[in-house]
Amino acid sequence: MALDLDNTLHAGVLGEDGIDGVQLTPGHAALQRYIKSLQKRGIFIALVSRNERPDVEALFAQRPDYPLRWDDFSAIEVSWGDKAAAITRITQTLRIAPDAVLFVDDNPGELASVTRQHPQTHTVYAPPEANQTLQAIHFYPGLWRWKVESDDTKRIADLQAGAEREALAKSITDPAEYFRSLQVTLLYRHDPVEQLTRLADLCHKTNQFNLALRRLNQSDLAQRLGGSNACVTSVQLTDRLSDSGVIAVIVAERRGAQLVVEELCVSCRAMGRNLEDSIILPALRGMPIFVGCQEVIFRVEHGPRNQPALNWLAQLLELKAPPDPGHHLIPAQRLIDFIPAAGVTLTQA
To answer: Which InterPro entries match (predicted)?
Structure first.
């Protein structure tokens, strides 16, 4: 959720009314409290404001009556620049797509400008009565969920740990030493019924590292859980900085001497850490139905944003270009011979 500041989170204009002059009405206080509660559901909160950054920092430092604090924002864009460009930078920082953003602003012109450049971005108009903004957000499609999973709540802490990981990567050039210093652990679970909701979320929401784009739902996954010729495997990633939770789901079926990978999704939380092979290949060879397989078949579809998954498979298949839609084969021995990244601990639940 990307939020404007003036006349959205409070009444008034900071640059004109000053820190003590902007008003936190009861409605704006309730709105801020509600927005803060969304963090517990794993929803990122971002600030997009046309102001001087030192003035906005001072506002949150000097107004203890504000429920929202400066550190609550996972991304902050305070400048006199274009808000659509600010939304672009926020999506890059949070590693999400523009269609995963809900932009809230009191200026219809700003809302129109953002949607012109990001047609898929969602918007909510913030009227002077803040309670109406709260209701509009509360009932906005896609925000409400039946159940909040533990992995949802880990998303924000994991992003905060990402900056420290990047700094560590710059100071340690040896990959094995980098992984050892982070104490990276991958935990594989086969047919984890208790994770059904999270795995369906991964299938539905993953866009970049989604090889087959099947979008399997809970019913689809439940039919395969525990089946004699199918396996659903989850991968959990942890290090000393944070628990990233379940970051991958792989669904495969046994067809004769072949293991056919029907769905392969890796969360953006795990991307950029050079762990893709270690996440995927040991998960496949650890499946009970892998025993005795001669070949592994990957199902491939092309989508608007799944280039990272296609690039990974192209490298695995030693192709110069992304693989075409269809089925692509590698010998099972490739998985048997694979050596995971040095310094990474692999555990089977």
So the answer is: FkbH_domain, HAD-like_sf, HAD_sf, HAD_SF_ppase_IIIC
**Fold that domain 150-348 belongs to in CATH:** Aminopeptidase (3.40.630)
Q: What are the strands of the beta sheet with 102-105, ordered from one edge? A: 75-78, 46-49, 2-3, 102-105, 122-125
138, two tokens: 């509360």
Strand, coil or helix: 99: helix
The SS3 call for residue 311 is: helix
pTM recorded for the entire structure: 0.73
Identity at 20, one-letter amino acid code: D
Residues 279 and 189: their CA atoms lie apart, in Å, by 12
Domain ranges of the chain: 2-138, 150-348
Average pLDDT over the chain reads 92
How far is Cα 63 from Cα 69, in angstroms, rounded to an integer? Answer: 9
Q: Are 64 and 45 in contact (CB under 8 A)?
A: no
| Cβ atoms 25, 132 nearer than 8 A | no
* C-alpha 202 chain-centroid distance: 9
Strand-pair category, 243-255 with 230-238: antiparallel
